Amino acid sequence: MQGEIARRLPKAVLHDHLDGGLRVESMIELAASCGYNDLPSNDPTGLADAMHQGQSGSLTRYLASFSHTVAVMQTREAIERVAYECGIDHHEDGVVYAEVRFGPSLLTEGDLTREDAIEAVLTGINRASAKTGLQFGIIISALRQQTDSADVARAAARYCGHGVVGFDLAGSELGNPPEDHLPAIRLAREAGLGITLHAGEAAGPTSIASALGRGGAQRIGHGVRIIDDCVVEGDTITELGPLAARIRDYRIPLEVAPTSNIHTGMATDAASHPFGLLHRAGFNVSINTDNRLMSGVTMSSEMALVKDTFGLSIAELAAITVHTLEAGFGDWPTRHQLIEHAVKPAYAAAS
Ligand SMILES: [Zn+2]
Predict the structure, then answer these.
(1) What's the CA-to-centroid distance between 129 and ligand 1, angstroms?
(2) pLDDT tens digits for 291-306?
(3) Do the domain assignments include residue 351?
(4) Residue 85 included in any domain
(5) What pTM value is reported for the model?
(6) SS3 assignment for the chain
(7) pLDDT digits over 120-165, tens only?
(8) For the chain, which terminal residue's Cβ has fewer other Cβ atoms within 10 angstroms, N or C?
(9) Ligand 1 mean position to 170 CA, how many Å?
(10) CATH number of the CATH domain containing 342
(11) Residue 119 annotated among the catalytic residues of the structure
């Protein structure tokens, strides 16, 4: 699929990390203005190469590269700029609905509180939305390996209904189960936030079961290792384990980001990624960027990759996009409007 065609199609993204999608030019300018001297390169091409995690092979190594992006996001102005540019870049890539997530605790190394960081993100992305019409929701992430998740959830809850739509657990999945964060999840849920938890990215089905069970997740970030609960013969899933069946039958949305999964070692290449298997078996899979900078992707490039690798038709991409919007946590009339008046006509015209 040509990038230009993919870019023209209206797209929705549910899983995109703000601190994983900075423009390299902005990183260099922000580092200079805040006196951060540890960027791996001060040249845009060199920095893009250094930030690209194609060879990292593990989630832990992949996550280490975030130290550079969060280092330059420690002031209101810097955060606002990054959030604004995130909205503009998604819009220019043809994204009409974006749920963007970040961990506010990572942005408190300077003078900011978590609330300051959330407000700066909302200001920046609201400005991009007013300029472009992009619809968005912010998801607040707590880190599994940290102990402040309840404070993060409390901060997120204050902005529920004001741009913050969801709560997430990100970070090191192995050894840090959602059971360690039940007060946070409960707080977020009772405040009215949607719950999406990273699971089944580095760890297997047990982790996904925890996220759905005691974690109460409505969506799963990645979830691709649910394939380990399936019997695969050739290019078909022939049998589902009980957890896989529940995920398929309840239409639990899996926020899949194939390139990121390849970079963190879940699959060796696109052809061996389980997206196609899961899609054909009826799982509710969406296409996501995860980290545009570290993985060197856009929604268009990721959609084109999925289409070309798994032979999806435009009609199938339309259905995936509709299901993606249906799985969003933002207000329904807005999402419904996008489905009926943006997505359906555009994909019908393209097919
Ligand atoms: Zn993620």
Answers:
(1) 23
(2) 999 999 999 999 999 9
(3) no
(4) yes
(5) 0.97
(6) CCHHHHHHCCEEEEEEEHHHCCCHHHHHHHHHHHCCCCCCCCCHHHHHHHHCCCCCCCHHHHHHCHHHHHHCCCCHHHHHHHHHHHHHHHHHCCEEEEEEEECHHHHCCCCCCHHHHHHHHHHHHHHHHHHHCCEEEEEEEEECCCCCHHHHHHHHHHCECCCEEEEEEECCCCCCCHHHHHHHHHHHHHHCCEEEEEECCCCCHHHHHHHHCCCCCCEEEECHHHHHHEEEECCEEEEECHHHHHHHHCCCCEEECHHHHHHCCCCCCHHHCCHHHHHHCCCCEEECCECHHHHCCCHHHHHHHHHHHHCCCHHHHHHHHHHHHHCCCCCHHHHHHHHHHHHHHHHHHHC
(7) 999 999 999 999 999 999 999 999 999 999 999 999 999 999 999 9
(8) C
(9) 7
(10) 3.20.20.140
(11) no
Catalytic residue among 80, 119, 173, 201: 201
Q: How far is the CA of 63 from the centre of ligand 1 (A)?
A: 10
Each residue of 305-340: pLDDT tens digit? 999 999 999 999 999 999 999 999 999 999 999 999
Domain membership of residue 335 (yes or no) is yes
Our count of domains for the chain comes to 1
- Could you tell me the residue range of the domain that residue 114 belongs to? 3-346
